Every structure is written in structure tokens, then in C-alpha cells.
Predict the structure.
Amino acid sequence: MWMTGYLSAKQASQKLGVSLSTLYAYVSRGLIRSEPDTVKRRRRYRAEDVEKLLARKSGDPDKQLAQALSWGEPVCESHLTLIEDGELYYRGRWVKELVRQATFEDVIEILWEGYERVDPLELSGEEPELEPLNRFAVTLARCAQRDLEACDIRPATVRRTGARILSTLFSTVCRWRADESLAGSLAAEWGLKKKSILDAALILCADHELNTSAFTARCVASAGASPYGVVQAGLAALGGFRHGAHTFRVEALFREVEALGAQRAVESYLRRGDELPGFRHQLYPDGDPRGRDLLALLDPMPPTAEELVEVAGAMNQGRPNVDFALVTLALSLQRPPGAALTLFALGRCVGWIAHALEQYGTGKLIRPRARYVGQLPGCL
């Protein structure tokens, strides 16, 4: 006789209208709890969990999904970035307009809901020759040891720590100037008379909903790690070739175009069955608005970029994305390889801190469950 409140595997699967294998999948995802029967050599299943799962299945589809996955696959609510109808919005503000009217600091203020300039931490000793992302990681590791205030994850303190992290990262690639904005200090280092193009690039890179590095940052923040840990984790994810380091592939494409011409370079990718880097984005069937808006400010574009866009369009390879635009900007400014990823990381740091602020505020740990698809116990 089964105890009240429990069902056998057969009873539970029949009540749910699913197979035994699906029932076991629910158990492995934590949706239904089970335990050994003290009398029979089999497992019993919590009737209340079965009833809750039935209620979810019979309710509103969107609500079902959020409830069923709250202790399964990750679901995060966010007030930060909206991607809708092929456009990008930060807290309801159209990014296309922000690019035209706002500074990078204005966007930090929007995403963080508060921003005050803070001087970078002073580090003694010379940094070794490293690529930008590695230099950022080394610098943050050193600063985290000294910045004890970063352990305080209340909102106002996190904003101060975030501002300190941001100014410190900028100081690793340019001379920090107290009388200049972040983009202004970088523009002075790069010999630019106007900083507006750098403001635009940083704004467009600031956040992009729940991308890989943003989700990584949220997971780390949910564990209670400091903003330094959050940004270090974001940098690690950004450095993958399917994320920010995709700009290296775009740089390689530009080198091929210079060597072979756009037509032959694009044809070589198609013949190999390789995706043409710097074009298309799965969230934007009609074109990445970040690539569009940044390229619109480069008038005219470098000849290599113009030729490549024309050939790619003629071969139905889609429109340029943000990676292409960042590389094109770096080339137009005669910056060395890696400059596009540097801009990407400096801009996206703002988004990681914004996601950390949101996640700290929930007080919840992001803990997805694995869907076990291996050998089931007792079936060997």
C-alpha cells in the first residue's frame, strides 16, 4: 500500500498523460520529487508535485513556461534591454536616438539608474604586454584584492564599484583625464578631434539583452560574487569566438579582401561552406540595427568595407552586424588588430554591471537543472 501523498510511477505517468521516460525526465529536472519506497523495491512520487505540474500544463502557456522552468531551465526577467521589431531599446529608450543625442555617460546613467564619475585605482608596476581582454582580466584581479568596498553589493556601492571598474579599464588603454569623459579620454589617446563616434560605438555595445556574457554575469552575481567577479566572468565569455572575439574573424576577412578582392574572398568562404563573418544576426532577420547605426556615422566607409558590403549583399549574405561595424570603425581610425574587441568590452562592461545590479536585487541564485538523458538507474 502506498502512503497518502505519493503515487507509483504508473499512477503518476497516467495522471500526467505522459510516458514513463517523460516522467523520469521531469524527476531529473527537479519538477517532481521522488524517493525510495520503504516497503517495496521501487520509487514513489510526490502527488502534490504531480498536481502542480498538471496545473501548469492547464494554465496560460507563457505562465506555464515561466513556472515550470523556474527550477529548471533559466528564466530571467529584466528591465534593461528590449529587442523588438528589429530595433534595440534601453529601459524603453530607442538606442538609435541615444546614439544621436546621448553620451556614453548618459547611457550608463540610464542602465545603472545612477552614475558618478570615480577615479581609477592606481596600480604600481608595469603591466606585461598582453592582448586587451587579458590585460583587463589581470588588472581586475589585482584591483579586486585591494578594493574591499566591492564586497558590499548594495545598489549605491555597486554603482561606485562599477564606475571604478570602468574608469580603471579605460585607464589601461588610454591616459585617464579627469577633465574628459570616458570616450573623450579614449579619443585623446587615439588622436581624434571628436569623441562622438566613440560615444556611439560604446552606447551600441553597452547591452544586448540576455546574451552569453550577460547571462554569465548574472549567474556569477546570483552567487553573491563582487562586481569584479561579474566583469571578469563577462570578459571570459566575451572572449569566445562565437561572441565578442568574432571580431577577430571579421578582421581576418578584411585581410583576405585586401589580398584577394571582395569577390574572391567571399567566394572562398562560400566554397568552403563557412559562414561569412560580420554579416547576419539571428535576432534581426532584416539586419542588425547596431551595425546599421554605427556604419551610418562612417560616411564614407573605407573602400574595403564598401566593396565587401556590396559583394556580400549581391551574394545574399545578409547585412553587416555590429562586429563588422566595429572592425570597420577601427580600420577607419587606423587602429591595430584587437581594437574592435577593446571597444566591445569597454561598452559591454556597463551592461554586465547593470545585470549584476538587477540580479543582486532579486536575492535569488540562478541554478538551472540538467536534463538527464543517460542510463537510468536499475536499467543496467
